[in-house]
Automatic annotation (TrEMBL):
It comes from Loktanella salsilacus. The active site is at 215, 249. The keyword Coiled coil does not apply. This is Aldehyde dehydrogenase. GO terms for cellular component: cytoplasm.
Length: 462
């Protein structure tokens, strides 16, 4: 479906026109009802969601349930359960100069939101921000990814079934549709995708000074300490890296392993890959496909270039180009100047980098762009040290990926990995303007207004 610029401008104008009425009518009950409708639609269309994700990139039904359906259902239940508290105006105490007033902070819907979603979790990352937008009382136009057409069409269908087009609408299309939407003066833009496009989004937002939430990516490192439980670490690292065939923003992107644990970790990871995907992982239905030929060539190219420059594939890497399936690969002897060490891999490839000195590892991490996630396996002391001496969007200790699933934790990046936060109350806040309302009860400030007589001068000295 192609929409002209005029169509999009008209859609946006309809959303804008509905804002004043919605400020009153889209109260807590209406928001709860909208969220309940969305929840029911997700429950009713589970088979369609599974089929769409299978068509788009061969995801296993269990993985679809775990990573696309359950997170949305959880987001909706969490928002419904806590909405009253999130919306409640927060009273604040007067400061000394403000005695004689009462003050509160009211969460006001920002207005009309634009949600731009990526392809890697195309259902969850389009509808998750919508849950927050609706909870906050905003209307939304969603631009899902053009690279997952079956899921994007399904989202459009579900949204049209659930909502009036001036409350939630879906615009399908690629860069062109995205660019046209970004030219409209939205009140808030919630973008999930690459840091490169994040910059384009922020520059576009600057034209109308729209607020932005940017959920971006980057290389998320893992540190495995000398005291780590290797069997447990391998379980979490292999799962986090290879779920969705490594096409996960918070996936462990490379592992710094203490030299004393290198051989044990390599063995344990190989064992986990075999346990999860069998003897021939490239044919396993549990392993998702690489989303398209371009990305397949990019990921296999990263391996080939690394090998040419001296790296070793110690396991996996078998590629079925026609099916776009790539057996989980473990790399060793990579160097810091290889592309595989510098670019976000976004595929089922895991470099293992032995270290002796933690200081060197932390220096390397701190010299690069701020990671979206950072994981540490080992003692409390090691984790505390790493947390204190680095920055990242989030930290996972003795686990991977899970911080993104925790409904009570804000999820977001820092610096090039993002700006602002999503999920739960943080997501509600992203789509809200926290508006102070200050009421005068008996504020004696008028005593200090001009003319500045001797009495005023005396008082102002206080
Ligand atoms: P992408 O930035 O290429 O595309 C994201 C969206 O932006 C798509 O809807 C696309 O149509 C649109 N877009 C692409 N180019 C554009 C342009 N020039 N102008 C305007 N819009 C444009 O990202 P992707 O390839 O879909 O996703 C992968 C990236 O997303 C990775 O970097 C990953 O780490 C990141 N990501 C981050 C999170 C998070 O929550 N932080 C989640 C998933 C993915």
């Amino acid at each position: 479906m192609t929409q002209t610029h005029q169509d999009l401008a008209a859609l946006f104008a309809a959303h804008k026109a509905a804002v004043p009425a919605r400020r009153v009518s889209f109260d807590r009950h209406a928001r709860l009802a909208a969220l309940a409708k969305l929840r029911q639609a997700v429950l009713d269309r589970q088979d369609d969601i599974i089929a769409a994700l299978a068509a788009d990139f061969g995801k296993h039904p269990v993985e679809v349930r775990l990573t696309e359906i359950l997170p949305i259902l959880q987001d909706i239940s969490h928002a419904r359960r806590h909405l009253r508290r999130w919306m409640r105006p927060r009273r604040v105490l007067p400061t000394l100069m403000m005695i004689g007033t009462s003050a509160r902070i009211e969460a006001q819907p920002r207005g009309v939101a634009l949600i731009i979603a990526p392809w890697n979790f195309p259902f969850q990352l389009a509808l998750g921000p919508l849950v927050s937008a609706l909870a906050a009382g905003c209307s939304a136009i969603i631009k899902p990814s053009e690279m997952t057409p079956a899921t994007s069409a399904l989202i459009a269908d579900m949204v049209a079934d659930c909502f009036a087009p001036d409350l939630v609408a879906v615009v399908q299309g690629g860069v062109e549709a995205s660019t046209q939407l970004l030219a409209l003066p939205f009140d808030h833009i919630f973008f999930t995708g690459s840091p490169a496009v994040g910059k384009i989004v922020m520059a576009a937002a600057a034209k109308s000074l729209a607020s932005v939430t940017l959920e971006l990516g980057g290389k998320s490192p893992v540190i495995v300490g000398p005291d780590a439980n290797i069997a447990k670490a391998a379980k979490w690292i292999a799962w986090g890296r290879f779920i969705n065939a490594g096409q996960t923003c918070v996936a462990p992107d490379h592992v710094f392993v203490h030299a004393s644990q290198r051989a044990a970790l390599t063995d344990a990871l190989q064992g986990r890959i075999a346990a999860m995907y069998g003897a021939d992982p490239a044919t396993s239905p549990a392993l998702a496909r690489i989303v398209d030929d371009r990305n397949f060539a990019r990921v296999t190219g990263l391996i080939a270039d690394a090998v040419k420059a001296g790296a070793k594939v110690v396991a996996g890497g078998q590629a079925d180009m026609g099916a776009r399936r790539l057996a989980p690969a473990l790399l060793e002897q990579t160097a810091a100047d290889m592309d595989v060490s510098r670019e976000e891999i976004f595929g089922p490839v895991l470099p293992l980098i032995p270290y002796d000195d933690l200081d060197v590892v932390l220096e390397r991490i701190n010299a690069g762009p701020h990671p979206l996630a950072l994981y540490v396996f080992g003692s409390k002391g090691l984790a505390g040290d790493v947390v204190a001496r680095t920055t990242s969007g989030s930290v996972g200790v003795n686990l991977t990926v899970m911080p993104v699933i925790h409904g009570n934790l804000p999820f977001g990046g820092v610096g090039t990995s993002g700006m602002g936060a999503a999920h739960g109350q943080a997501g509600f806040a992203a789509f809200s303007h926290m508006r102070p309302v200050l009421r005068n009860r008996f504020l004696p400030m008028t005593l200090l207004f001009p003319p500045y007589t001797g009495r005023v001068k005396k008082l102002a000295k206080l």
